[in-house]
Specification:
alpha/beta, 14 strands, 33% helix
Amino acid sequence: MAALATPQDRLEAVRAALAREAEPLVALTHLLHLCRDQHAELWERIGDPDCRHRVTAALEPLTAMLAARAEAATVDAALGRALADALVAVEGVPAVVVARALAELLDGHFADTFTDSFRRRSPYQPSVGDPIPLDAPDLRGVMQMPPTAPPWRLANRLDETRHVRLAGGWAVQFRVVFDYSLYDGLAGLVTAETVVATCHPNRTMAEFELPKDADGRTFPVRPADPARQHQLIDRLIGRACAAGAGIVVLPELAVTASMARRLREWTQRPDGPRLLIAGSHHHEDPPDGEPARPAAPQYRHGLGQGHEQPLTHDKHSPADRPVVEDIQPQGWPEQRVYVLADGWHLVIAICRDLLTPRPSTPWPRSGRTWCWCPR
């Protein structure tokens, strides 16, 4: 099948976009699209030292223009025209190789503006080909062990830069949302001193109610003695916090909905955890048949005030052992990514959702996890 657009058509479209685009993130995205569309040619030439030398020399005037705009947060008209004019073949070097070099220049010069660009769009749901943030916490601040594979030994994608990548096919399979509402509130959550505790209130399946239907499917799974379970969990969270835990995680199906609500009190206490993942529970749809989908988190910010609503997440892939879990989640599977100020991302994933390559067929029951945040 013939291509819908020729390489020259795509090149001219990107040049026209660069000449008029003032937002650095959007300009960078246009360049990365070209790198993605012509990746075969780019891979063939990018490793040639001669090729890289010619491109570097050709872009010296543009590099000087960027250096003279050290404090700039946008692409002015003159810089936009210069970017468009620079995107041409150079002494036998394809324009896509120049596009890659221009993308690296924009990424290096304007990286500090990308966070604001994404935050303005929060909650931000990318489609295929849209930019997504590549944040990188400094792991040397939390551990001394060197990485097993140094970055220079890894195969790098050429449709991404140090700070930005294009969203792939997963943006169709899952509704992925980048949420910046906790950006400042959970800053400093992970440091070299952070202690993460997992609390395990149960030892055997006998401590759960496991009702089964005629087909052997189980729903809802819940603690057999909720009052005792709550006492155990309270004791375990207290011991974890006394040992210095700032993040406390409870297991799947360890709570009921009312228990999860009451556990919020721990994040309101001065001796409580900074972040509490309050287990999960099975829940049914409302009687009127409307799907019980997790709402976008709403927060009230203020000195001494807690987040009034938890972060919630629904499970979409039922377990088949040790019981056949009869959850039937409805709708497009959503995964919310909470972006934090120091490069970390907070993501809630439940059991098989993290292990399965694809979501299950959607139906109207699900398992829900709760996450309580700090004061």
